Amino acid sequence: MKNLVSIILIILFTCSFSFSQWTLQGTVTGLGLYPSISVYSPTGVVIAGGLQSTPTAKVYKSTNNGINWTDISGDLIQRRLYALWALNENIIFVGNAGASGNGGDAQLFKTTNGGINWTLVLSTGGTMGYFNDIVFSRTNPLIGIAQSDPPTSGGNHFLAKTTDGGVNWIVQNTISTSSAAITHSAICIDNLFYGWGIAGAYGTKSYLMTTNGGTNWFTKAVNLPGNDFYVSGFAFSSDKSTGIASSSTTLPNISRSTDGGNNWVTINTGLPISGESKMKWVYNTNCCYLVSDSGSSGCVGKSTNGGLNWILMNTAGVIRLNHIDVINVGGIAYVYAISKNGSVI
Fold first, then answer.
1. CB atoms within 10 A of CB 71
2. What is this structure's pTM?
3. Are the CB atoms for 269 and 277 separated by under 8 Å?
4. pLDDT digit string (tens) for 33-72?
5. How are beta strands 45-49 and 36-39 bridged, if at all?
6. What is the CATH number of the domain that holds 138?
7. In sequence order, which residues have a C-beta less than 8 Å from that of residue 154 and are 6 or more positions away?
8. Is residue 344 in some structural domain?
9. 238 Cβ contact list (under 8 Å, min separation 6)
10. How confident is the model at residue 12 (pLDDT cuts 50, 70, 90)?
């Protein structure tokens, strides 16, 4: 398969600004169609992925806003990576695929020296599934989750949770559901409130959630029209009151909740974008973002009032954005997005 070029875009803004400028910060090859991105400081970002045809783990790090990239894949087992989180320049987590054709179970790896060495943290068991997401709380970075599809046919979802910054992980593998998890849809607000988008029955768009730290789980539909069957974008405010959700075919419509997820109402964003989307909330603010697979003049939407109203951010034709991440430092948000294809801006 031809190596695809993944494009990194960066934007610096405050939520009160009505205009923000996206600029290309670098290009990296070999990340495949489903790269991940994680921001750990105003100038620090990590990306990960791998080619599909000949599974190859790739991780790159930049300490200067993405202008220069260093390959830190090191001694990682050569399977493509779908999940990524960087706590800082040195402590980084990645999760790989254990599906048929890759051999073995899905695995979570950690480096504490910026990628010089990688250590196996845990394995899911079985020969199926892959880590869809690794997400830490932005308000309490000691708390995080790593989530994988069932490692065996008909088995339970696999979830590992940490409350000490990834030093120790507690496995919660009793989450019984027949629905697959959706990559890059997980949230982790605090020790009690976390979940992710799932693929359910045809026409049903839902997420799987706990509000008591994993003691109980529930599935909730987000009230979106259309016949697709999964929630691809999912985000919640830091106070857990307002949520937004999207699916693969219903843009420009999204769903919004203002009562902690009890009720969901369809919102027409008015954005000229379509395709699968991903969402991020700028924690401790009313700002949130969505990136989409395609758009007529850009594929980034921005809201400054908790997802009620949206404006289009022009990305000069760059489309097929696969993942987005944001860090809020002193009231300034630093947002990075990564694309699936070779478009350049």
1. 12
2. 0.91
3. no
4. 888 999 999 999 999 988 767 778 899 999 998 778 899 9
5. antiparallel
6. 2.130.10.10
7. none
8. no
9. 138, 139, 189, 281, 283, 284
10. very low
